[in-house]
Amino acid sequence: MADKKAIVIFGATGDLAQKMIYPSLYFLESEGHLPPDLMIAGFARTHADDQGFIAQTRKDVMDNAGTLFSEDVWSRLAARMHYCEGDVTVPKTYAPLVKLLEGVTVCVYYLSTSPNFFATIACQLKEAGLAHGGARIAVEKPIGRDLVSCREIESALDETFGDDRVYRIDHYLGKETVQNLIALRFANTLFEPLWNRASVDHVQITVAETIGVERRWSYYDSYGALRDIVQNHLLQLLCLIAMEPPSDLDPDSVRNEKVKVLRSLRPIGAGDVERQTVRGQYRKGVSEGVAVPGYTEETGGSASDTETFVALAAHIDNWRWSGVPFYLRTGKRLAARTTEVVVQFREVPHYIFPRSDMIANRLTIRLQPEEEISLQIMNKAPTLEAMRLKPLALDLNLSDAFKKQRRRIAYERLLTEALKGNSFLFVRRDEVEMAWKWIDDIIDGWKEKDMKPLPYSAGSWGPSSAFALTERNGHSWYE
Ligand code: NAD
Question: What residue ranges line ligand 1, CB within 6 angstroms?
């Protein structure tokens, strides 16, 4: 008999579920990628019945899908959908879920809630008999807010589901361009011989947002930019850029290599934070032509020492990367929305052209707003003058190259893999813990040195100290 499958979304009425998870399920339905008998159950505290929840979700999916919305697809998706109202901390609210999941043999529980609930939900599912052998649990980042709380959650997940059935989500790993980093490095012979300290001068990784914290103030204020973005997304990008070639694409082969990078990250403690890190917090300013309030004046905001910007100079102590700075930067209300990795190659060893014309090669891998890869190379400018040079970019625009393809939501791929039981795109426990260890040192250093966030105007590129961080080594951020 075929397996009866289900996905249960905890926090189903929340921002993430409504903006990303249900739209992803809609697109998977539209392309026939959902298993035919898949049931989709939502669980949240919001008061609603099946019909009310489905009507609300339809609006959010419509907004997301725009012209790609089809009533036919929606009615197929809606026919799979159910809603359970309840408080995850109250055991009796799991009873309707138990009934709904009768006969289900393969189930993914997707925890789109605060990490404070992860351990409770896992334990309640186990108590209710829902953590059977065919059940997997997927948890959103951040897993905890430091190493200690992360380990508490991990222990609960391990005791209830077992580590091999825990899927830790970092949605960056579901992005096409992030997966493409592996293809770019290991499916081409061009880059790998240059991918080391002999040819690479430094690396920059930026995740910049123009939006502020908006209605997520209270959540954000207890995390800040370092925990919210650097601990997960930025460190995952750094690992994929810096790791050694895995022997194959087995999930553990890739994750073993990523963990080695995290182990080689030089700790940044109290003695280094002032030189190697910058904290910032936005003040009022103009963002994309609109006057916007400062962080502490946002709805629900109050006086706070939480950083909305962080820049770091990291070092990887191994043979490949010794002496190559990896600059990491993220922030809210910055001058542009962009996520990109820049690999800056070294200058030529000897100049036969005018030195002032020369710009060293640079590889830019952009994830947002567009997915593109660009290699800047030097060319002769077509002038009457003797040899004058100009840098030109060899551009690979992925949306142009794959025109017929819709840009997928990262969660589409992650949901598909979780349903199949393939852990390749998910983060392993030791990766999360190593990352927290590195982050905790920085946070302890900030506390010890009483390093408060420096102000920056909304719409700028962060505090001026962020520029000094790179200029100190003769480098500058690419904007
Ligand atoms: P949210 O506040 O919008 O939604 C929270 C959901 O949890 C709601 O459905 C709410 O009803 C439910 N909930 C809260 N307390 C509950 C309880 N006691 N019992 C049952 N349900 C309860 O939050 P969000 O923005 O959707 O984020 C969810 C998680 O995902 C957070 O940990 C966040 O850090 C993480 N995350 C969010 C985003 C995003 O884009 N919003 C991106 C990545 C990760």
Answer: 11-17, 44-46, 87-89, 112-115, 140-141
Indicate if 213 and 321 belong to the same structural domain.
yes
Asked if 233 is an active-site residue, the reply is yes
> Residue 3: what residue type?
D
| Ligand 1 geometric centre to CA of 263 (Å) | 31
Counting ligand 1 atoms within 8 A of each CB, the residue from 19, 93, 114 with the most, and so the one to mutate, is 114
| Residue nearest atom 33 of ligand 1, based on CA coordinates | 114
Angle, alpha carbons 217-221-225 (nearest 5°): 105
On whether residue 396 sits in a domain, the answer given is no
Q: How far is ligand 1, taken at its centre, from the CA of residue 171, in Å? A: 15
Exposure b/e, 323-345, CB count within 10 A at least 16 = b: ebbbbbbbbbbbbeebbbbbbbb
pLDDT in tens, the chain (479 residues): 678 999 999 999 999 999 999 999 999 999 999 999 999 999 999 999 999 999 999 999 999 999 999 999 999 999 999 999 999 999 999 999 999 999 999 999 999 999 999 999 999 999 999 999 999 999 999 999 999 999 999 999 999 999 999 999 999 999 988 998 999 999 999 999 999 999 999 999 999 999 999 888 999 999 999 999 999 999 999 999 999 999 999 989 999 999 999 999 999 999 999 999 999 999 999 999 999 999 999 988 899 999 999 999 999 999 999 999 999 999 999 999 999 999 999 999 999 988 888 899 999 999 988 888 999 999 988 888 778 899 999 988 777 777 767 888 999 999 999 999 999 899 999 999 999 999 999 999 999 999 999 999 999 999 999 999 999 999 999 98
Whether residue 95 is contained in a domain is answered as yes
Q: How many structural domains does the chain have?
A: 2
Catalytic residue, chosen from 233, 315, 350, 475, is 233
Pocket test residue of 8, 15, 216 for ligand 1, highest count of atoms within 8 A of CB: 15
Domain for residue 148, yes or no?
A: no
**80 within some domain:** yes
The atom number, within ligand 1, closest to the CA of 216 reads 25
Residue whose token pair is 């992860």: 118
Task: Return the H-helix or E-strand segment holding 310.
Answer: strand 309-314
**C-alpha dihedral, 421 to 246 to 407 to 171, nearest 10°:** 60
**Residue 122 shares a structural domain with residue 57:** yes
DSSP codes joined into one string, 176-218: HHHHHHHHHHHS-TTTGGGSSTTTEEEEEEEEE-SS--GGGHH
**What's the domain range around 257?**
173-352+427-471
CB 454 within 8 A of CB 280: yes
